[in-house]
Write a structure and sequence with these properties.
It contains eight helices and twelve strands. The chain is α+β, with helices and mostly antiparallel strands. It has three domains: 1-87 and 110-123, no CATH class; 135-176; 186-284, Immunoglobulin-like (Sandwich). The strands form four sheets. The chain has a four-stranded mixed beta sheet. It has a three-stranded antiparallel beta sheet with strand order 7-8-11, with no helix packed on it. It is rod-shaped. The relative contact order is 0.09. Keywords: Membrane, Transmembrane, Transmembrane helix. The chain crosses the membrane at residues 134-155. InterPro entries: DUF3426, Znf/thioredoxin_put.
Length: 285
């Protein structure tokens, strides 16, 4: 069963026959919709109107009229028009007429327009597009730097205590004159001596003395100290948390911090929890 042939004439079609009397030019051309296979009769004005692009009046599909272009209808009503694919650039050797030198200006506007190539022609990108896009690239880099800065500011305390990042931050602050929070590693604090005795001047209170060694390679601030007391069954019966100003009397000493590879003496005053308190523990925060 052969495919139906629908022949429609474009309203903008015009005869290509010129007044030169030449019989070499066809009176009309034909193109075929690739979707519904409808054949249309077209002229030069229709081809030039949208750079050989058209929309099928039957199925509304947009297609390239040059892809199936013929100057004659097929002998078989069910046959397809010949398909054209991109090939070598043709050389036009037989001139029909030649425009005079004085008439070149009539076509100046058309030559200056950038014609879009047919769909089957592949074109290379233009370097001008890359030059026009440099503000977008610069803006993207700026936004990335701002995002990194915001993340760094939000996590500045954590980053300042990271041993892997701290040397780079120290070098940066030395150049831009910024101040970082003191580096702190309570794991490098070691309790080397401790003593518990009744308070010499306060009844019902205890005086606890502790000697803490800073084993770190840097000076770090005095820690928050938790003193926990427990009974024989290791049950917690008393606990108190001390800030640096609670066990160090001198503010300048607190400001200087704990020197590296040096020990510091800390004195804590607590209420006597009774005879059940037989053990105590120090925790550094």
């Amino acid at each position: 069963m052969s495919l139906p042939l629908i022949l429609r004439t474009s309203n903008s079609s015009r005869s290509l026959a010129t007044r030169t009397g030449s019989a070499l030019l066809p009176a009309a051309m034909y193109t075929q919709c690739p979707e519904c296979l409808t054949i249309f009769r077209i002229g030069a004005a229709t081809v030039a109107q949208a750079r050989a692009r058209a929309r099928c009046g039957v199925c509304r599909v947009e297609f390239d009229m040059l892809h199936a272009l013929a100057d004659q209808l097929p002998a078989d009503p069910g046959a397809l028009l010949p398909q054209h694919h991109g090939g070598a650039l043709p050389l036009l050797e037989v001139p029909l007429t030649r425009t005079r030198l004085g008439q070149r200006d009539l076509f100046a506007d058309n030559r200056e327009r950038s014609a879009a190539p047919p769909a089957f022609v592949q074109t290379k990108g233009h370097s001008a597009g890359g030059r026009r896009n440099w503000p977008w690239y610069l803006g993207a880099v700026a936004m990335l730097l701002i995002a990194v800065g915001q993340i760094g500011f939000a996590y500045r305390e954590t980053l300042a205590q990271d041993a892997r990042v701290r040397p780079y931050l120290d070098s940066l602050c030395a150049k831009v004159d910024c101040l970082l929070p003191p580096r702190r590693e309570v794991e490098q604090l070691a309790l080397v001596a401790r003593d518990v005795r009744p308070h010499p001047s306060v009844p019902g209170a205890l005086m606890i003395s502790a000697t803490v060694l800073n084993k770190a390679e840097f000076t770090q601030p005095f820690p928050i100290v938790e003193v926990v007391m427990s009974d024989l069954e290791d049950r917690k019966i008393a606990m108190r948390r001390f800030q640096p100003q609670d066990y160090v009397d001198s503010l300048p000493v607190i400001a200087r911090g704990m020197p590296t590879r040096a020990s510091s003496t800390m004195n804590f005053e607590v209420l006597d929890p009774g005879k059940n308190a037989v053990a105590f523990e120090f925790r550094f925060r």
